[in-house]
Amino acid sequence: MLGTFGTNVWLFTHPAGMFGSLVDPLAGIDTDAELFLYGLAAGLPNGKFLALLMMVFGMGLTIQHAAWNRRQAGGDRQASGERRRDWLRSYAPRALILLLDGAVNFVLVAEFDILMGYAFTGFIVAALIAGSPRTARVWTWCAGLIHAGGLLLLAALVLTPVAPPTAATDPTGEAAAVHQDGSFLDLALFRLDHSLIFRAEPVLTLAMGVCLFLVGARLYDRGVFTSHGGPLRRRLMIIGACALPIDIVLGFTGFASGILLQRYLTAPFVALGLLGLIAHIARTRAAHTLAGRWAAAVGRMSLSVYVAQNLLAGALFYGWGLGLAGRFPDHRIAMTLIAVVVVVTAMIAFALAWQTTAARGVMRRGPLEAISHALSATRTRRSARSDDCDAHRRCTESR
Fold first, then answer.
1. How far is the CA of 122 from the CAs of 12, 53, 54, 84, 185, in angstroms?
2. Residue 332 covered by a domain
3. Which of 175, 213, 353, 357 could disulfide-link to 58, CB 3.0 to 4.6 Å?
4. The pLDDT of residue 39
5. How confident is the model at residue 26 (pLDDT cuts 50, 70, 90)?
6. Could you tell me which of 55, 380, 349, 332 has the C-alpha nearest to residue 210?
7. Burial (0-12, 13-18, 19+ Cβ within 10 Å), 301
8. DSSP labels for 59-85?
9. Is 305 within a domain?
10. Directed axis angle between helix 173-181 and helix 184-193, to 10°?
């Protein structure tokens, strides 16, 4: 979760926000040294934590499905189709709440929200993991091939260097004005007005998401975090190490197609290596160090941290806050690196303080986690009452 901020921070420090980053990503970066630092600092995290988060989300889905199966073990035996429908009916409130969280986050906090896309993708994958393992593998390969083919076609269409726009063709004027001088409400309205552009990535990554969600679920089932998963973890790290040089080269090409291929094609393979490395660390004493406890605290309330880190960055760089992006456009590299340290430190402190001082039980998960859990529990109780009524009606009719 903190790693995603390493990618998103460049959108905050651009004077024209995400819209400006799509048109002129090198704004405020002039010297060769700054270009090199930007290539490293922006290229290394680019797409890796997005892919890693997708795989972790898939792991969460398979854990939830396994828990649901255990709860249903004592019930009546059902046909596989009926069980799948019951599972999807129980998961639907979670997906709906995640979609609502994402919509609010998109309008009020960050135009690059990922939660809305995860809500749709998660529901698709929830149906797939309830089927046979063979079906899931077929869908994994199909989704991966569709994503790779579509991405290569798109990269061929945009095979041009990334160059700053001229004064006559610069379309970022409105975006720069609203980010530097607009109010909180102005920025929310700007996101709604340009929602087709800002919501393009979840559509572009739908097939990739289905593939990586299923990959994450498969790796979890194969024991990537268990004591006997050592060979699997080593294979993942080898895959990541082989993909990393290609990924770095693509980031330094200066071509829009290279950046696309880095973010959406090579980055998932590097993310596999990161997953293997993290799983390896989790099996050692390093997981019990101070840094390990900090990471665990953030992980327990990842939804709250995701929204809070974007909200804090907005307060630092947008016009409704301190407006640092507009005040220091020529110091973007230094400002970005400092922002990463400040925001990550603040999020770790926020997670530790909340879990130390908050009430026990559900509230300790985090403020947004507690709200989502309460809404999901309410919806689940209503669904259970409805199912009981339907069962009673069917029993009465049969009699």
1. 28, 12, 9, 15, 31
2. no
3. 213
4. 84
5. confident
6. 55
7. buried
8. HHHHHHHHHHHHHHTTS----HHHHHH
9. no
10. 150
Residue 10 falls inside a structural domain: no
Q: Given a cut of 50, is residue 347 above it in pLDDT?
A: yes
Chain length of the chain: 399
Q: Which residues are within 8 A (CB) of 294 and not within 5 positions of it... i.e. 6 or more apart?
A: 348, 351, 352
Q: Identity (one letter) of the amino acid at 311? A: L
- The answer to whether the Cα torsion of 199, 190, 345, 323 is positive or negative is positive
What does the pLDDT look like over 76-124, one tens digit per residue? 555 666 778 889 998 999 999 999 999 999 999 999 999 999 999 999 9
Which whole-number Å values give the CA distances from 178 to 60, 188, 191, 316, in the listed order? 38, 10, 10, 15
- Dig out the tokens for 369 from the structure: 């986690």
* Residue recorded with tokens 């270009």: 35
Tokens found for residue 37: 């630092």
326-348 b/e with 16+ CB inside 10 Å = b? beebeebbebbeebbeebbeebb
Residue 147 has pLDDT above 70, yes or no: yes
In this structure, the dihedral spanned by the alpha carbons of residues 48, 95, 207 and 65, taken in order and rounded to 10 degrees, is 90
The one-letter amino acid at 266: T
99-117 as b/e: b if 16+ CB within 10 A: bebbeebbbbbbbbbbbbb
Rounding to the nearest 10 degrees, give the CA dihedral for residues 327, 330, 332, 337.
-100
∠ at Cα 75 (70, 79), nearest 5°?
Answer: 95
Q: pLDDT tens digit string along 289-312?
A: 788 888 888 988 999 999 999 999
Domain range for 144: 33-287
**Mean per-residue pLDDT of the chain:** 86
- Chain-centre distance for alpha carbon 356: 26
Task: Copy the structure tokens of residue 75.
Answer: 């019930």
Number of neighbouring beta carbons within 10 Å of residue 87:
19
Query: For the chain, what is the radius of gyration of the CA atoms?
Result: 22
**Total number of domains constituting the chain:** 1
Residues forming beta bridges with residue 255, ordered by sequence position: 161
DSSP for 177-228, written as a single string: HHHHH--HHHHHHHHHHTHHHHTHHHHHTHHHHHHHHHHHHHHHHTTTTSGG
